[in-house]
Write a structure and sequence with these properties.
The chain has 194 residues and is of the alpha/beta class. Helices cover 32% and strands 30% of the residues.
């Protein structure tokens, strides 16, 4: 009887420890431009470049007892998805998206400059997360150049550690908000229309 009680205590302690350790997550984010875009351009040719200029590919950690083993990253499919959104948005605006090297083409470079996921490190349970995303954009026309930075952030509180699907949704929402702000800037469109 005492042996069985000891085994139950050990099993219970092991479950508690497992609950405090989180595994890494790779998020398959799919940010979208979320504003209606009216055609204002006259089929001006635009080359699109999308790049990741973050200093670290790790957004942050899921916290817990062993935060160093619970890193959050995004999948390699994120950049192609962002590029597709940027190109689609330019087409909706009336631009003609062309290949690199096309003569007399304007250029729009969109860089993922920052992506962060901060959860408290002082507790073993993830109770909240601060999520932020920043895109840098550079529009180059024939005689003009314009740069801007577009950020968005959100704070979420949880009763339990969010799973991969939840974190994917939350990070995608913030990235979508930041990417949408690029296309809300009339100066970007103005430069590309030259």
């Amino acid at each position: 009887m005492l042996n069985r009680l000891a085994m139950l205590v050990v099993a219970g302690a092991a479950l508690v420890l497992v609950g405090c350790a989180h595994s890494p997550q790779q998020l398959n984010v799919q940010p979208q431009v979320q504003v209606p875009l009216n055609p204002v351009a006259s089929a001006q040719p635009v080359v699109v470049v999308v790049q990741d200029t973050r200093q670290s590919k790790v957004l942050g950690t899921r916290g817990g007892m062993y935060p160093n083993s619970s890193n959050i990253t995004i999948s390699d499919q994120a950049l192609p998805q962002i590029k597709q959104q940027v190109e689609q948005s330019l087409r909706q605006l009336g631009f003609n998206v062309v290949a690199e090297g096309t003569p007399n083409a304007n250029r729009l470079t969109v860089s993922l400059a920052e992506l962060r996921y901060q959860s408290p490190t002082s507790t073993t349970y993830v109770t909240e997360a601060d999520i932020g995303a920043t895109f840098a954009a550079e529009a180059r026309g024939m005689n003009k150049q314009y740069q801007g930075r577009y950020g968005a952030s959100a704070n979420h509180r949880f009763g339990y550690a969010p799973n991969q699907a939840t974190n994917t949704r939350l990070v995608t929402e913030v990235m979508s908000d930041a990417l949408t702000r690029v296309f809300r800037d009339p100066e970007i469109v103005r430069v590309l229309q030259q």
